[in-house]
Amino acid sequence: MPTSTADAVWRGDLRSGEGTMSADSGAFERLAFTFATRFGDDDGTDPEELIGAAHAGCFSMALSNELDEAGYTPEEVATNAEVTVEDGGIVRVALTARAAVPDADADAFDEIAREAKENCPVSRALAGVEITLDATLN
Q1: Are residues 133 and 75 in the same domain?
Q2: Helix or strand or coil: residue 120?
Q3: What is the pLDDT of residue 52?
Q4: Is this structure's pTM higher than 0.70?
Q5: 103 and 78 in one domain?
Q6: DSSP 18-84
Q7: What is the CATH number of the domain that holds 103?
Q8: Ordered strands of the 31-34 beta sheet
Q9: Of 72, 89, 116, 121, which one has the fewest beta carbons inside 10 Å?
Q10: Please, what is the average pLDDT of the chain?
């Protein structure tokens, strides 16, 4: 697997400063973030939102792969990741997934979804964080 790289620059102090984040792939460049976008109500992104996006994407791909390996053909896997920060750290990620998989057995789907959550590389990277999963077969 190739190495992925991203950069961040922060200018100024924590409360009044501002920063940008960029992906070397070009997927996003100079994505702005501030104290208010991270801890307040201002529009914009923050590192935890990007972790959530990464986790949702990783899980969706992992579940699709696990389903395929079990002989099912997923039409769509849509995942939301809610990242909770408390006491200065990420304490929980709640994954909510909906999958359209024709002819899938519900019990098999539940087991495959649990395995995908455990095997997703982002889940592994967040091993010290509580990760919950609500996966529904449509």
Answers
A1: yes
A2: coil
A3: 97
A4: yes
A5: yes
A6: EEEEEETTSSS-SEEEEHHHHHSS-SS--HHHHHHHHHHHHHHHHHHHHHHHTT---SEEEEEEEEE
A7: 3.30.300.20
A8: 6-11, 18-23, 31-34
A9: 89
A10: 95
Instruction: Map residue 107 onto helix, strand or coil.
Output: helix
In a domain, 81, yes or no: yes
Same domain? 67 vs 30: no
- Specify whether the CB–CB gap between 91 and 130 falls below 8 A: yes
Q: In this structure, is residue 1 part of a structural domain?
A: no
Lowest mean pLDDT among 22-26, 38-42, 108-112: 38-42
Domain that holds residue 54: 47-137
Q: What is the amino acid identity at position 79? A: T
| Residues 53 and 35 reside in one and the same domain | no
Please compute the mean of the pLDDT values over residues 58-62 and round it to a whole number. Answer: 98
Return the sign of the alpha-carbon dihedral for residues 110, 131, 92, 61. Answer: negative
pLDDT digits (tens, 9 = 90+) for 113-127: 999 999 999 999 999
Structural domain count of the chain: 2
- What is the model's pLDDT at position 59? 98
